[in-house]
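Support case: adenosine monophosphate complex. Customer-provided input:
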Amino acid sequence: MCGVVGVFGHTEAANITYLALHALQHRGQESAGIVTSDGDHLHPVRSMGLVGEAFSKREIDELSGQMAIGHVRYSTAGESAMKNAQPFSVEYAHGAIAVAHNGNLVNANDLRRKLEMDGSIFQTTSDSEVIIHLIARARELEVEHRIISALKQVEGAYSLLFLSENKLIAVRDPMGFRPLCLGRLKDSFVFASESCAFDLIEAEFIRELEPGEMVAVDAKGLRTYRPFRQEPTRFCVFEHVYFARPDSHIDGRSVYRVREALGRALAQEHPVEADVVVPVPDSGTPAAIGFARASGIPYDMGLLRSHYVGRTFIEPQQSIRHFGVKLKLNAVKEVLAGKRVVVVDDSIVRGTTSRKIVKMLRNAGAKEVHLRISAPPTTHPCFYGIDTPTRSELIASSHTPEEIARYITCDSLGYLSLEGMMKAVRAANGGVVEAERSHCDACFTGKYPIEFRPGTISSLRRVVN
Ligand code: AMP
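Agent response - structure generated as follows:
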């Protein structure tokens, strides 16, 4: 769970990167960083926290140069600490290089052990540092070819941006797990995890990088490479379900349209007699709109979300029931009292939030609460860049929907089927023909597209609450 931004050839490269990172804040809230190049040297700034708080104006002003890459981080590999904040930047025998990574490498532990046995000293616990070591050891001369040589040794999910003194290089892994978009801002090229970042900086969306594609930009222009063996595409379906912003266009389709279609399919698969459809904001909103449209049941804002709470370190001394969820959400009694309520969310992870939401709705006077989830049960952890808890913490890995409904205390629970989800996702791509399995659905099926040795990843992963 991370977001990346790149700018090449703009007099305000640092400013533009900083602004675009705001639009990707949902992809990572732990740390933020920007590295610029003035053609001779790299200038980094990294900090813990949100983009708006992480840097001072002076720090951004001091980032000279017309090329930049930026990163927002939510840790999936390596602890949440300043040393793991990205972009990483290093100086090595052939110059300077910085990297910003969205994804997760599945063989990072093995590679790291080998490199350490060979004498490498690691400064971070992040899997992305392995790539830098491999680049530094590569025998090729040109930086593109050093990167290719390094990436041929890694396995897993990566959308990467590299910055050398005079080149910006973008790469997507051969299966294309994570998104990466290319755009134009006047005479400069820009890159971002999601197209919503281009809207903010008024850049024109050109296209997405293709799985396995590398794009290098320097003073001579833009070149594209296809250095890897072709693999079947496995774009992460959970980006559509939950992770990406609904105003983004990624994987060839509008995330908003996909979510609305998921809600429509959910209404068809799990109809219920009710008076009002209420989303769990913001994650459940487009699906709830789709559910309401398909079922004809009115949509209303029965839950309000505060957008100003991050983490809080002050807990009430007297117990306030369900305090954590109350900080974020509140029920609107006028919408709910005496009503049969359908509440729509995108996923159930541990089940704790949903249980509290159901209680909150009942306390506000809801007569019945029917929970509808716009994806199948989340049964398996992600090893490709989404932060999910271990298998034993995922409630659906060991409980049936009936048991989950009992725990959550809702009157009924309906999950969208795998077939229903994939049909809705496919239908939202404007009719382009796709392979039967063009997405990674491992969190719902346990079918991991890239194998890994059990135990090699869990030791690197840190579970974030
Ligand atoms: P839980 O109480 O653990 O079942 O959490 C369910 C909520 O977590 C839903 O509202 C989801 O939108 C949200 N969610 C799903 N996946 C993630 C994730 N990887 N990180 C943070 N929140 C998530």
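Residues 255-269 form the longest helix (15 residues).

Case will auto-close in a few days if no follow-up is received.
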